[in-house]
């Protein structure tokens, strides 16, 4: 090992301090590397809030137990003292707050809110139990009559969390054949579309100047600088969310100097960059009759649920009040995409292209063999985002056949069912299905091409 080299494990446990203020951010918990450099997982808080002024006004008010991600790059972590086990950082504007939601209410206020929330949740469980009975899904409630307190509480929480408005619509929509306008249709027809733009991948990746797109780039930069754009990033697995978000931060690090800093990129506004996990809906048994489809249970106290696709993002935006926040902030365009599209995320050229076409929707397509069905990138006008959130019945669901082990309540006993073939449906909706409701002349296609 060279004299100035440091093993990643040596960083674990080191205190992280903001160089300009002396504020203690926290302690390095783990070091990750996903191909674009090391990333520090810093556990926020500590026994001291500053290095030399523990009682100063620099005290960190962030609750303990939280963590932030810090790219281990020389321009962000310029000084490391191995003897004192401290590193001094110079984080770009907004880095420590990225995707963080701090709660600065008093302890008394939080307790009052928790009590109100508890009562609200109890009412929702009661209402959900009534809906399940009306839908002839009473078998789901059997677990509430047996088991210990923890098991019953877990089942009640799962019942409460079901979006029944969306679930009912999904059950009805897959019971009748409907057409679909998938991303593949746009891939095949894009060459003949009038509102088509082809952008070299390197232009996005390196944020390089390109005279061919100067107008669109300037227009997009104006949209972002005026805080008229927001980005919603979607993942379908909470277990991989941290890893994907780490990769996102690494990609931000590459563009930090010439994009984020120079253009005050979103100001790294935590209210305009959201990372959300796909909503889950119950898996249902296979049947041609709507009333015969039953919610499957993994155990008497666990509903078998799977991510319901990117289309359910509109229900998430409404239920989490993100939609209200975006409207209050005057957002005009929303980018909805997967975390795999890192070079595209929040890129001014893409927003500018959609705006210059006068389009209400822009679909980004990558001409690459590496693209998968899970990769998607869509920019929608805020007007149409509002319409979709107000009426989620516009979403088009499909019933994907799957095979799952489950339990059934038979003659007062729980019986294990081991299927030998596909036995159930996953209810699934793609976000691109919303394009069915746009006038063709209001949709533009942007092809990202490899040169």
Main sheet record = 7 strands, mixed
Strand portion, in percent? 15-25%
Q: Number of DSSP strands?
A: 22
What is the C-alpha radius of gyration, as a whole number of Å?
Answer: 25 Å
What is the residue-averaged pLDDT?
A: 78
Helix content: 25-40%
Q: Structural class of the helix and strand makeup?
A: alpha+beta
Query: Which regions have little confidence, pLDDT < 50, spanning 5+ residues?
Result: 47-65, 177-182, 187-192, 238-244, 249-268
Overall CATH architecture of the largest domain? Alpha-Beta Complex
User: Distance between termini?
Assistant: 39 Å
User: How many distinct folded domains?
Assistant: 3
Q: For this structure, what is the CATH class of the largest domain?
A: Alpha Beta
- Order of strands across the biggest sheet? 7-22-16-17-15-8-9
The quaternary state of the protein chains shown equals single chain
Net shape = globular
InterPro entries: Nucleotide-diphossugar_trans, PRC_barrel-like_sf, PRC_RimM, UDP-sugar_pyrophosphorylase
Organism: Oryza barthii
Protein name: Ribosome maturation factor RimM PRC barrel domain-containing protein
Domain Ribosome maturation factor RimM PRC barrel: 10-95
Structural overview:
This protein is of the alpha+beta class. It has three domains: 8-91, PRC-barrel domain (SH3 type barrels, Roll), CATH 2.30.30.240; 107-169, no CATH class; 177-449, Spore Coat Polysaccharide Biosynthesis Protein SpsA, Chain A (Alpha-Beta Complex), CATH 3.90.550.10. Helices cover 30% and strands 24% of the residues. The chain is built from twelve helices and 22 strands. It has helices spanning 8-11, 107-134, 149-161, 164-173, 183-189, 201-206, 214-225, 238-261, 313-319, 322-328, 348-356, 382-390; strands at 15-18, 24-33, 38-44, 67-71, 79-81, 86-89, 196-200, 229-235, 273-277, 280-282, 284-285, 297-299, 302-303, 305-307, 333-338, 361-367, 377-381, 397-402, 406-410, 413-417, 424-429, 443-449. A seven-stranded mixed sheet has the order 7-22-16-17-15-8-9, sandwiched between helices. It has a six-stranded mixed sheet with strand order 4-3-2-1-6-5. Strands 11-21-18 form a three-stranded antiparallel sheet, covered by helices on one side. α2 (107-134) crosses α3 (149-161) and α9 crosses α12. The two termini are 39 Å apart. One of its GO terms (molecular function) is UDP-N-acetylglucosamine diphosphorylase activity. Residues 10-95 form the Ribosome maturation factor RimM PRC barrel domain.
């Amino acid at each position: 090992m060279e004299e100035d080299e440091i093993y990643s494990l040596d960083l674990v446990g080191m205190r992280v301090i903001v160089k300009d203020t002396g504020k203690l951010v926290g302690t390095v918990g783990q070091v990750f590397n996903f191909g674009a450099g090391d990333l520090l997982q810093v556990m926020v808080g500590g026994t001291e809030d500053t290095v030399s002024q523990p009682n100063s006004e620099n005290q960190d008010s962030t609750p303990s137990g939280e963590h932030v991600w810090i790219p281990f790059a020389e321009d962000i972590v310029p000084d490391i003292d191995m003897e004192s086990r401290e590193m001094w950082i110079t984080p770009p504007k907004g880095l420590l707050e990225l995707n963080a939601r701090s709660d600065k209410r008093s302890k008394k206020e939080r307790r009052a809110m928790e009590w109100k929330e508890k009562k609200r949740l109890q009412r929702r469980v009661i209402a959900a139990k009534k809906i399940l009975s009306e839908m002839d899904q009473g078998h789901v409630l059997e677990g509430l009559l047996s088991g210990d307190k923890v098991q019953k509480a877990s089942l009640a929480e799962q019942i409460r969390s079901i979006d029944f408005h969306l679930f009912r619509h999904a059950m009805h929509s897959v019971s009748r054949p409907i057409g679909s306008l998938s991303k593949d249709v746009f891939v095949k027809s894009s060459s003949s579309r009038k509102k088509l733009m082809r952008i070299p991948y390197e232009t996005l990746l390196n944020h390089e100047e390109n005279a061919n797109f100067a107008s669109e780039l300037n227009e997009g930069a104006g949209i972002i600088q005026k805080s008229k754009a927001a980005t919603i990033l979607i993942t379908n697995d909470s277990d991989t969310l941290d890893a994907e978000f780490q990769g996102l931060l690494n990609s931000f690090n590459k563009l930090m100097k010439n994009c984020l800093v120079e253009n005050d990129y979103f100001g790294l506004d935590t209210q305009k960059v959201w990372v959300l996990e796909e909503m889950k809906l119950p898996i249902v048994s296979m049947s041609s009759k709507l009333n015969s489809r039953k919610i499957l249970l993994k155990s008497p106290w666990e509903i078998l649920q799977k991510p319901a696709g990117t289309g359910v993002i509109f229900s998430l935006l409404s239920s989490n009040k993100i939609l209200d926040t975006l409207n209050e902030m005057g957002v005009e365009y929303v980018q909805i995409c997967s975390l795999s599209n890192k070079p595209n995320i929040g890129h001014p050229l893409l927003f500018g292209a959609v705006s210059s076409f006068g389009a209400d929707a822009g679909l980004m397509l990558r001409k690459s063999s590496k693209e998968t069905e899970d990769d998607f990138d869509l920019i929608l006008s805020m007007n149409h985002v509002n319409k979709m959130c107000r009426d989620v019945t516009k979403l088009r669901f499909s019933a994907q056949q799957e095979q799952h082990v489950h339990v059934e309540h038979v003659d007062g006993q729980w019986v294990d069912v081991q299927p030998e073939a596909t036995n159930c449906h996953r209810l699934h909706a793609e976000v691109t299905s919303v394009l069915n409701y746009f006038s063709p002349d209001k949709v533009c296609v942007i092809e990202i091409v490899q040169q």
